[in-house]
Amino acid sequence: MKTFLTLSALLILNSFNLFVQWESDVRLSDFPISSRINDRVGKNIASNGNIVHAVWDDARHGTEREIYYKRSTDDGISWGVDTRLTNDPAISELSTVAVSGNVVYVMWYDNRDGNGEIYFKRSTDAGLTWGDEIRLTDNSGLSNHPSVAVSGQIVHVVWQDTRDGANGEIYYKRSTDEGVNWGTDMRLTNNSAASWNPSVSLSGSVVHVVWRDKRDGANGEIYYKRSADGGVSWENDIRLTNDPSASTNCSVNVSGQVVHILWRDNRDGNDEIYYKHSTDGGASWGTDIRLTNNSDVSINPSVTSSGSIVHVVWEDYRDGSEIYYKLSTDGGLNWNEDTRLTNAGSFSMYPSVSVSDSVVHVLWEDFRDGAGAEIYYKRNPTGNPTGVENIRTEFPKEFSLAQNYPNPFNPSTKINWQSPVSSWQTLKVYDVLGNVIATLVDEYKPAGNYEVRFIVANLPSGVYFYKLQTGSFVETKKMLFLK
Predict the structure, then answer these.
(1) What residue numbers bound the domain in which 446 lies?
(2) What is the mean pLDDT of the chain?
(3) Contact, 396 vs 51, CB < 8 A?
(4) Which of 335, 325, 337 is nearest to 301 (CA)?
(5) What is the pLDDT at residue 3?
(6) How far apart are CA 442 and CA 265, in angstroms?
(7) Are 373 and 34 in contact (CB under 8 A)?
(8) What are the strands of the beta sheet with 238-239, ordered from one edge?
(9) pLDDT in tens, 170-197
(10) What is the 3 state secondary structure string of the chain?
């Protein structure tokens, strides 16, 4: 199943020019002690509307590392001051960040308790101020490499844990009230071999987790698991790779029913980036797709998506150690050529990618400034066109959601709405069972009159619903798709 937004004809004709407008590298940290990015699968950058959030760890205040945060309130054009989030005598590292509305969530590995545990901190005002630290795990084993995803008030975190033995298992925990209270730990894997480096993403109430697992041999394969009820119960493990070489460093992202997975794979004699997707919410999976093809190592991929547009970054050694980028505009079916994002002549490592509105944001660790690494950032202001247009200049006096036109439709229709207040606005499409088919809008927008085009492919004919939420206004309308 594949459902996606498209651009206007003008954007389609000029898509190449739009997608290559990468701006200059921006140095975010500037200290003599190395600043580091999460070296596994955690995301170190998150964005929502025009606010971009970055986290990392460094040792500027002593021998042990602490977690630092920085934000931009203008889509990455300028950045505020560094904010120190931790202050304890032990190691704090492997940070990851997620955002929903104005609530920002940061997780990390912390050794203050004598063994490694997962800690958590949040901001409810988009990173301006921060609450207290919360210890999420408490056991005699090592809990590390957290990955976090959030939708509305529900926060999901997965991590690697050795409480059941040295091999390690994947554990999960959730909060249903924006991180104020947390449920019990849930063990997601149970086998005699190592389960490592989980990554989590979600769409509505469906939670998707991938990890590296050695139950099938020493090399390791990529495994997948999902929950269809927001993390309450979980389905069986699914093995996604099956080759005699190592498959590792997996990353997952989901948009609607389309689940995108990336990983590092050695089946070709050297490490390459591979990709796989599901178009039915993880029920079935397509074939493996090799995204890189060069004589040197390609590792540490990160993926994000927005409708049918998929963005991938990774660390590549064909030119030394540089950050590369790749784009798909049709939900992962076809891919553009590789784009080299850095050219520093040093080690550029561990990239993370995020999108908000039309902007693509990339964060990474870079050694160009000397012996220690610094945190760098790059953006493409037009690399993720949303297809949402403000269609009239006059100020609306009331809320309204128009009937889509045409209706019935095949394959596309337009949906118009207006909001007299600036607010967080969501526009989602549902099937008759209440499943989210597509998220057309999920962002803070100023008061205005808006239009978005909705295009359907590989869906059955029938009735669908679209629901708008903006400010205090909520309305749902019915539309009919006929093949």
Answers:
(1) 389-481
(2) 88
(3) no
(4) 325
(5) 41
(6) 34
(7) yes
(8) 195-203, 206-213, 221-227, 238-239
(9) 999 999 999 999 999 999 999 989 999 9
(10) CEEEECCCHHHHHCHHHHHCCCCCCEECCCCCCCEECCCCCCCCEEEECCEEEEEEEECCCCCCCEEEEEEECCCCCCCCCCEECCCCCCCEEEEEEEEECCEEEEEEEECCCCCCEEEEEEECCCCCCCCCCEECCCCCCCEEEEEEEEECCEEEEEEEECCCCCCCEEEEEEECCCCCCCCCCEECCCCCCCEEEEEEEEECCEEEEEEEECCCCCCCEEEEEEECCCCCCCCCCEECCCCCCCEEEEEEEEECCEEEEEEEECCCCCCEEEEEEECCCCCCCCCCEECCCCCCCEEEEEEEEECCEEEEEEEECCCCEEEEEEEECCCCCCCCCCEECCCCCCEEEEEEEEEECCEEEEEEEECCCCCCCEEEEEEECCCCCCCCEEEECCCCCCCEECCCECCCECCEEEEEEEECCCEEEEEEEECCCCCEEEEEEEEEECCEEEEEEEEEECCCCEEEEEEEEECCEEEEEEEEECC
CATH number of the domain within which 444 lies: 2.60.40.1930
- AA identity, residue 10: L
Under 8 Å between Cβ of 401 and 468: yes
The verdict on 175 and 65 lying in the same domain is: yes
Asked if residue 396 and residue 316 are part of one domain, the reply reads no
Query: What number of other Cβ atoms are within 10 A of residue 255's Cβ?
Result: 23
Do the domain assignments include residue 294?
Answer: yes
d(CA 258, CA 282): 8
Residue 10 and residue 244: Cα distance in Å, rounded? 46
Q: How many structural domains are present in the chain? A: 2
Map 47-108 to HEC letters.
EECCEEEEEEEECCCCCCCEEEEEEECCCCCCCCCCEECCCCCCCEEEEEEEEECCEEEEEE
Q: Is residue 4 part of a domain?
A: no
Q: Residue 2 domain-assigned?
A: no
pLDDT mean over 3-26: 52
Among 328, 354, 380, the domain-final residue is: 380
Do 274 and 181 share a structural domain? Answer: yes
202 and 262 co-located in one domain? yes
**Is the pLDDT at 271 greater than 70, yes or no?**
yes
Question: Could you identify the residue written with the tokens 């955002």?
Answer: 99
> In angstroms, how far is the first alpha carbon of the chain from the final one?
15
In a domain, 6, yes or no: no
Nearest CA-CA partner of 5 in 429, 467, 425, 351: 429
What band does 215 get if pLDDT is binned at 50, 70 and 90? very high
